[in-house]
Structures are given as structure tokens and as C-alpha cells.
Structure prediction request, 117 residues.
Amino acid sequence: MKNYEKLILRISVILILIGFIVLYISSIFYEPRIISISEINSNFVGKNIKVYGNITYLNWKDNNLFLIVSERNSDIFVVKFSIKDHTFKKHQNIYVSGQVNIYQGDLEIIADRLESP
Prediction:
């Protein structure tokens, strides 16, 4: 291999590594946009979103938290798996970040993060 080929190879590898580092750092700071619960439809399945609403139903069983979060005249079922403890209460406002899925024909959010305002 000639010297300029080695140089191009080294530059390419360095740029690839820089690209991966930038992608990793940006993924840490990525925050899904807040959308209205009424906007959620089947087009959102598989996408990460963030909603704000009021807890109208709450059940905690086997370290899993099951919620219905409501906003005006719309609501959505939310599941947060493997939660050791929680301080959430019915009628509390909450931010939910997670992925939209379909379960038994209904839209739901599998929560990554639950936050009090």
C-alpha cells in the first residue's frame, strides 16, 4: 500500500470514529417532542414520544406500573415494566416518555421514563 492510501485509510477510520461518538452523544441528549394524547394514532406505532396528562387509573402489580393518562377528552394506556417503587398517585399530572405500541387492538405507551412536573 502506498503512503497516500495509508493516510486516506487512517483519515477514514478517524472520521468514522468521530461520527460514532457524535451519534452516541446526541442520542444521550435526544428528547422526544411533547405531543397531545389526542394526536396519537397508528402512524406513531414504534416511535418514541412524550405526553403530558393526568393519571386517571393506577395499578402496580409484580413491579409493573399500569396507568391510564388522560388529557382533556383523550386518554392512553401506559405500562412501565420493572419499576421497583413509585410515588405516583391517581389524579397526579405526569410526563410520560416511551414507545407507542398496539396491545389487543388498542394504542398504548411502553414507558421508558415517568416524571412529575
Notes: The chain has one helix and five strands.
